[in-house]
Amino acid sequence: MKYSGFSLLKNSFSGHKHWPNIAADIEPKSRYDIIIVGAGGHGLATAHYLAKNHQITDVLVIDSGWIGGGNTGRNTTIVRSDYLLNASFKLKDFALQLWQALSQELNFNLMYSPRGYIDLAHSDGELEHFLSRANAMRLGGANVEILSSQQVADRVPGIDVSDNARFPVCGALYQPDGGVVRHDAVAWGFARSASTAGVHILQNCPVTGFTAKDNHITGISTTRGNIECNKVLISAASASSKLASMVDIKLPMDLINVQAFVSEPVKPILDSVVNYNAGLAYISQTDKGELVMGGATDGYESLARRGSFSSIEDTLARATQMFPFISRLRLMRHWSGTADIPMDGNAIVGRSPVENLYLNCGWGYAGFKATPAVGWSMAELLATEQLPQLLQPFALDRFKSGALIDDAGIGPYPWLH
Asked: I want to staple 342 with a disulfide (CB 3.0 to 4.6 A). Which of 181, 247, 274, 362 is the partner?
């Protein structure tokens, strides 16, 4: 899809009325081989890899809203794989490898920017933990460095690494391949690829129920009628619990509000992503000059997707401790999403207790960065019925066996610390 500057200008004056749809308008069939509930990054990536890797296109991706209108479009676009535990690291690192060539694969500019991810340590103990994490990552083949406070200051002009700071910076873990990816472009790129291959994408059509017989899903009920199928994947983030409950599956997840903020644009000042671990605040700068900031979850269950001044204040207080100049900037906008988070802070992926129903949920803060790896792996599971090794640790039955993946301290889940 190529447009000249004149074409872009023409479409802007026409209100984009003649802009081509990213996915073909379809009339749903009465039956599909596979139905994916959720047209976010994960669901669309699964459809893309079903077509690309397994030549399966008799697939419907259905969503109650629009393409990428959920958590895919409500995040801070960060990608990284700086995890200590193998289960989390291997999946995120595979995703990081896929991100690097995904724009070429989809023929769609995802604006992947490997500007580096810097995780600040505020004590000798925390820095020692980062060293352990870095060593584990190196064993897995990742490129990672441990920085001194002076090296942090050299890489990040404007950051306060003085001894007078409330939480002095003792050093940092630095992952050069981490960075950001344009979130809405991810949804559009996967959607266009899947649609072009023949996958059907149906927007603004809520799923209202499932039809089942002998522990086997036979179809879904929607606001546009019933559709039969052989397999169903629930990949709907915060809506997954409600959908699973329709077939009497109770998922062990909390639904927590998460917020992010964007400042007015300023000249280039920050060419990496920086995370302040003391209470959590992370920050990056967009190509337009805006500073994107986020922090910890609100800490209480909510589906409201609206902000709270206390969270704004907490996040900005920590951001200004990192970069004092931020105190002089104005916030331009703010948004929130609903993070679906299990008790160990990690996703639930794989088979469900219902024979041909599959789950992909519970990603909390980690969903966006894992998008291509999850799509690749879920497509393999749906196509072959074999659970890929990367997904095995994330199975639902780990909550019965006790084989939890406790990544406490690696993301903004305050109740896990």
From this structure: 362
Give pLDDT, residue 417: 37
How many CB atoms sit inside 10 A of residue 355's CB? 12
- Tell which residue, 71, 79, 16, has the closest CA to residue 39: 71
Task: Examine the pLDDT at 410 and tell me if it is beyond 80.
Answer: no
Q: Which domain holds residue 299?
A: 114-179+254-342
Please report whether residue 46 resides in a domain. Answer: yes
362 and 381: one domain? yes
Q: Are residues 160 and 188 in the same domain?
A: no
- Which residue in 349, 360, 357 sits closest to 397, CA to CA? 349
CA 158 to chain CA centroid, Å, is 29
Choosing from 284, 317, 342, the residue where a domain stops is 342
| CA distances in angstroms from 158 to 47, 120, 145, 314, listed in the order given | 43, 14, 21, 20
- Residue 381 and residue 358 in contact, taking contact as beta carbons nearer than 8 Å: yes
What number of H helices and E strands is found in the chain?
Answer: 10, 18
Q: How far apart are CA 136 and CA 92, in angstroms?
A: 14
Stretch among 48-57, 171-180, 315-324, 386-395 having the lowest mean pLDDT: 315-324
The residues facing 24 across adjacent strands are: none
Per-residue pLDDT tens for 269-296? Answer: 999 999 998 888 999 999 999 999 998 8
The neighbour count for residue 150, using CB atoms within 10 Å, is 11
* Arithmetic mean of pLDDT, 296-315: 78
Q: Which of 34, 19, 68 lies closest to 200 in space, CA to CA?
A: 34
Specify the length of the chain in residues: 417
The conformation of residue 73, written as its DSSP 8-state character, comes to G
Q: Measured between alpha carbons, how far is 395 from 393 in angstroms, rounded to an integer?
A: 6
Neighbours of 254 (CB within 10 A): 19
Residue 387 burial (CB < 10 Å; 0-12/13-18/19+)? Answer: middle
Long-range pairs, 387-395, Cβ under 8 A, ≥24: 387/350, 387/351, 390/90, 390/91, 390/94, 391/91, 391/349, 391/350, 392/350, 393/86, 393/87, 394/87, 394/91, 394/346, 394/347, 394/348, 394/349, 394/350, 395/348, 395/349, 395/350, 395/351
